[in-house]
Fold this protein.
Amino acid sequence: MAAPARRRRPARTRRPTRKPTRRRTVRRRARQAATNRAIAAAFVLVLVIAAFREYPVTSSLLTALALASAAIYFLASTGHLRLFARPVAGRTDFTHSIAAYQHLTGPQFEHAIADLARRDPAVRTAIVSGGSNDRALDVLVQLADGRRIAIQCKRHAPNNRVGAPVIYAVNGTYRAYHRCDQAVIVTTSSFTPDAQRANAELDHPLRLIDGRALGRWVSGGHPPWGT
């Protein structure tokens, strides 16, 4: 009698090996980078210690310089360095600020000067009062100490300077008519020599703010009544 035929077992299929996923690859590279940074940091630390032992004075000076540079970079990147910066006369470029004012209309320039005045904590109110019959008063500033400041605004092109008649007009009205304690003329251009001489001859000269002085004021300088 013939032996029964053996059943063949199905061949086992080999499971394909899993390729490392992208996430695992990223993690492995991150661990490798961290390890490399740790080795580099340890190497630098060994060099620093050796340098301090060999050249203590020079190493101390270099370390202080590096710390100061890092502190300055941190303050500049976070914007805190501006708290210690003061505008330097004759070195700061105010062209952009003045150009922005020169593109305004007359009424817009008056409102811009009023907004600029309100930045001063000493200002209680700054009211635009310019118009066809403003009697040489465009912005009336009321200070917290009770003083009243009359501001005449002249948005002129750079080649259109403010002349002496404006000086006489403001001087004749700011005290007698507007009852102000001080008068300021602000322009985006400059003042003629005749205007400067006429102002110097007054018993109480006006504050003349030309384009550069206006740029310093815009950049955080003292207002005309604060100096």
Remarks:
- Confidence is low (pLDDT under 50) at residues 78-94.
- The helical segments are 22-54, 56-78, 95-102, 106-118, 164-173, 193-200, 211-218.
